[in-house]
Design brief:
The protein has about 475 residues and is of the alpha/beta class. The protein folds into four domains: about 15-115, NAD(P)-binding Rossmann-like Domain (Rossmann fold, 3-Layer(aba) Sandwich), CATH 3.40.50.720; about 150-210, no CATH class; about 220-330, Cobalt-precorrin-4 Transmethylase, domain 1 (3-Layer(aba) Sandwich); about 335-460, 2-Layer Sandwich (Methyltransferase, Cobalt-precorrin-4 Transmethylase, Domain 2), CATH 3.30.950. About 40% of the residues lie in helices and about 20% in strands. The protein has helices at about 20-30, 45-55, 85-95, 135-145, 150-165, 170-210, 235-240, 255, 280-290, 310-320, 335-340, 370-375, 390-400, 430-435, 450-464, and strands at about 15-20, 35-40, 60, 75-80, 100, 115-120, 120-125, 220-225, 245-250, 265-270, 295-300, 325-330, 355-360, 360, 365, 380-385, 405-410, 420-425, 440-445. The strands form five sheets. A five-stranded parallel beta sheet has the order 3-2-1-4-5, with helices on both faces. Strands 10-9-11-8-12 form a five-stranded parallel beta sheet, sandwiched between helices. Helix 5 (about 150-165) packs across helix 6 and helix 9 (about 280-290) crosses helix 10. The mean pLDDT is about 90. Bound molecules: S-adenosyl-L-homocysteine. S-adenosyl-L-homocysteine binds next to helix 11 and strand 19.
C-alpha cells in the first residue's frame, strides 16, 4: 500500500487551490461538500467559480499565487493544468507547509483524492494508486447502485438513536436491529414518508426487536457445486440468503460468496496455497461457536458436501453440541467434469457402476480394489489425484489395465478457466508433468472427451 487512506477533518481549516479551469472546477465541486475554508487563486476563473465566490462559498483571489499564499493551509491543489505553473505553485505551497496534490500528476503529489461515494455521513473512498481509474469508476458506480440513496439521512437519524438501542443486549440482537433499520424498515419508512416517518418508526422497531425471541442457531451443510454459480441449487441460494455466517473452504469461488446475504460474516476455513490450514477441530469449534450464539450458519463446501468433505466429523460435532442441522446437496466435481467431456458416468454395455475414489487418504496414497478398477470399460473419478497419478498408473498397469485406457483430467471444471487434458493411462504421468495444471483437478479414468473418443476409435479400427 503506497497510499494510506485517511479521512481528514476539514471543518474550518484552510484549503488552497490554484487554477480556474476544468480541473479546478472538478476538485472544487468535491471540496465544496466539505466545511473547509476554501481559497482559490486564478487570474482567469471560470464563471462558476465567480458565482461560488459571490455566494460566499469560497474566497477568490484574482492573481497568480505568490509565496505565503498557502500559509496555514492543510491541503493544496495545483490545478492550473500547466506543468510549469503547477510545479511553481506546489513549491510555494510546500514551503508554506501544506500537503500538495498536483492534478493528474501522481508522482509529484503527496496525497491523492479518491473516487468518492457520498452518503454523508457515510463516505466510501476508492483508490487504485493511479493504476486503474476505470476500475475505480466501475467500483464507484457499483456501490452507488448498491447503497440505498437515502443511507445518509438514515445514518444521521440512526446515530441520534444509538443511545436508545442500548436497551438491547450487545451482539446479535443489536446487529439485527441495525440491519433491519438500514436495509428494511428504514428505507421503507423513508420512501413512504421521508425523514419524519423514519423518526416515527424507530420506537416501534426497537420494541419489536426487544420482544423478539432469541433465535435458535442452526447449521446448514451446503454444497457450493464445482464453481459456476449457476450450478448452485435453489436451496443453496436460499441458505446463503438467510446466512448470518458463512464458513467456506478454499474450493468455493468468489462469485458464489458474492451471493451470501450482504450482512453475513464470511470466514475462510480452507487452506491457502501451501500455508497452514485450519485443523478440523478448529473448524468444528468455529461452526459451533457461531451457531451457539443463535446464528444461522452455512458451512459451505465445494462440490457436494457428502463427497470427500469430512462432513460426518462436522455433523457429529454439531450434534454433540445439541445444535440443529441439515444438508443441502451440491453438484460434485465428477458430475461437472463428465459433463464437460460430453460423456456419461455410466453407460449400458460399458460400465454398470462408477467409483469415486480419492488419490490419497490420511495414511498416504489410498489403496483401492485395483483388480476391478483395471478391468476394461471401468470408470473411476479420482479426487485429489494429481500427486498420486504415478501411483495410480503403476497399480492399474500392474493389475493388467490396458495401456491405452483413456484418461481425462479436468481442471477447474465448470469455471471460465476450465481446461481438459486428454491422455491415456500410459501417457498420464508424462502429460500431467508437462502440463501446468495448478487448479483443482479431477481425473476421470476410462473416459475421453467425446470428440477425442471418436477419433481414438477410428484409429483403433484402422490398426485392427
Ligand atoms: N466435495 C467436493 C470434493 C472435495 S475433495 C466435490 O464434491 O466436488 C477436493 C477435490 O475435488 C480436488 O482435489 C479436485 O480433485 C476435486 N474438485 C473440486 N472442485 C473441482 C473442480 N471445479 N474441477 C475439478 N476438480 C474439482
Amino acid at each position: 500500500m503506497k497510499h494510506f487512506p485517511i479521512f481528514v477533518a476539514l471543518e474550518g481549516r484552510r484549503v488552497v487551490l490554484s487554477g480556474g479551469g476544468e480541473a479546478a472546477l472538478a476538485k472544487l465541486r468535491l471540496l465544496l461538500k466539505t466545511e473547509a475554508s476554501l481559497t482559490v487563486f486564478s487570474s482567469d476563473p471560470a464563471k462558476e467559480i465567480e458565482n461560488w465566490a459571490n455566494e460566499g462559498r469560497l474566497r477568490l483571489v484574482r492573481r497568480a499565487m505568490e509565496p505565503g499564499d498557502a500559509t496555514c493551509a492543510v491541503l493544496f491543489y495545483a490545478a492550473d493544468e500547466d506543468d510549469a505553473e503547477d510545479a511553481r505553485t506546489s513549491t510555494i505551497a510546500r514551503a508554506d507547509g501544506a500537503m500538495v496534490n498536483i492534478v493528474d500528476n501522481l508522482g509529484d503529489s503527496e496525497f491523492i483524492t479518491p473516487a468518492i461515494v457520498d452518503r454523508d455521513p457515510v463516505t466510501v473512498a476508492i483508490g487504485t494508486e493511479g493504476a486503474a481509474p476505470v476500475l475505480a469508476r466501475a467500483i464507484k458506480s457499483d456501490l452507488e447502485a448498491r447503497l440505498p440513496a437515502n443511507l445518509g439521512p438514515l445514518a444521521r437519524i440512526g446515530k441520534a438513536f444509538r443511545k436508545a438501542v442500548e436497551v438491547l443486549p450487545m451482539g446479535r440482537k443489536r446487529r439485527d436491529f441495525w440491519s433491519d433499520f438500514y436495509f428494511n424498515a428504514g428505507p421503507r419508512a423513508m420512501d413512504q414518508g421521508g425523514e419524519n416517518a423514519v423518526q416515527d418508526t424507530l420506537p416501534a422497531l426497537l420494541d419489536k426487536h426487544e420482544r423478539a425471541q432469541e433465535r435458535e442457531g442452526h447449521v446448514a451443510f451446503v454444497g457450493a457445486g464445482p464453481g459456476d454459480p449457476e450450478l448452485l441449487t435453489l436451496k443453496a441460494r436460499k441458505a446463503l440468503d438467510a446466512a448470518d455466517v458463512v464458513i467456506h473452504d478454499r474450493l468455493v469461488t468468489k462469485d458464489i460468496l458474492e451471493l451470501a446475504r450482504r450482512e453475513a460474516i464470511l470466514i475462510n476455513a480452507g487452506k491457502e496455497g501451501f500455508g497452514p490450514s485450519m485443523s478440523q477441530d478448529d473448524i468444528n469449534a468455529l461452526i459451533i461457536e457461531h451457531a451457539a450464539t443463535g446464528a444461522q450458519v452455512v458451512r459451505l463446501k465445494g462440490g457436494d458436501p457428502t463427497v470427500f468433505g469430512r462432513l460426518d466429523e462436522e455433523i457429529e460435532a454439531v450434534m454433540a453440541a445439541d445444535i440443529s442441522w441439515h444438508v443441502v446437496p451440491g453438484i460434485t466435481a465428477a458430475s461437472a467434469s463428465v459433463a464437460s467431456l460430453g460423456q456419461s458416468l455410466t453407460k449400458r454395455g460399458r460400465n454398470s457402476s462408477v467409483r469415486f475414489v480419492t488419490g490419497h487418504d490420511m495414511k498416504g496414497y489410498a489403496d483401492h480394489d485395483w483388480a476391478s478398477l483395471a478391468r476394461p470399460g471401468e470408470v473411476a473419478a479420482v479426487y485429489m489425484g494429481k500427486k498420486s497419478a504415478r501411483f495410480i498408473q503403476g497399480r492399474l498397469l500392474m493389475y493388467g489395465a490396458d495401456r491405452s485406457t483413456p484418461v481425462s483430467i479436468i481442471e477447474n471444471a465448470s469455471r471460465p478457466d476450465q481446461r481438459i487434458l486428454a491422455t491415456t493411462l500410459s501417457g498420464l504421468v508424462n502429460d500431467l508433468d508437462a502440463s501446468d495444471l495448478n487448479g483443482p483437478a479431477l481425473t476421470l479414468i476410462g473416459l475421453a472427451p467425446r470428440a477425442a473418443e471418436a477419433a481414438l476409435t477410428d484409429i483403433q479400427q484402422e490398426f485392427a
